[in-house]
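for the recovery benchmark. tokens below, seq after
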């Protein structure tokens, strides 16, 4: 397993729609392992393949944050929201591609998601609370959408400018 570099906004790849996955291959399983390691190292609770420059419909998530609790990683190929609640929740979201920036985003409180698991089997489950927010946030990445796209244009521009400055500083080393 290896930790992959995470793309920082603004990067044109973060605004593109990812390609559907035809078959779960050993290479894709390895990619999913790398993504989980990268996510845990960051540390984060979700990561989408486009965030590491891979334009495929793959996300990983693990919203278990309690100290000493066993991790519950989920790998989803071609995840798709098939149902959403009318009830909404607002969470202060952040993103590994937009470090140290947060914003309140309102999303459905519960969602039903179907996906293909690591063994190539079709799965479907309902998610609520932080898991629901996280899975929606990661699926947004597969569609070229960032959490800041839900914020006001002024707030979005301010965060984008901060990220441009951060990228310049990182480039200087």
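predicted aa per position
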């Amino acid at each position: 397993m290896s930790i992959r570099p995470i793309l920082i906004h603004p990067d044109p790849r973060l605004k593109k729609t990812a390609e559907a996955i035809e078959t779960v291959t050993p290479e894709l399983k390895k990619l999913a392992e790398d993504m989980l390691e990268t996510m845990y190292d960051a540390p984060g609770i979700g990561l989408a393949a486009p965030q590491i420059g891979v334009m495929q419909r793959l996300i990983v998530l693990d919203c278990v944050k309690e100290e000493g609790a066993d991790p519950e990683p989920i790998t989803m190929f071609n995840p798709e929201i098939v149902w959403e609640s009318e009830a909404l929740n607002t969470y202060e979201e952040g993103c590994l591609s937009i470090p140290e920036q947060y914003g309140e985003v309102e999303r459905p409180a519960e969602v039903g998601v179907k996906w293909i698991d690591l063994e190539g089997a079709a799965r479907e489950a309902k998610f609520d609370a932080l898991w629901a927010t996280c899975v929606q946030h990661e699926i947004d990445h597969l569609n070229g959408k960032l959490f800041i796209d839900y914020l006001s244009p002024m707030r979005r521009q301010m965060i984008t400018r901060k990220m441009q400055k951060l990228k310049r500083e990182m480039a200087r080393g």
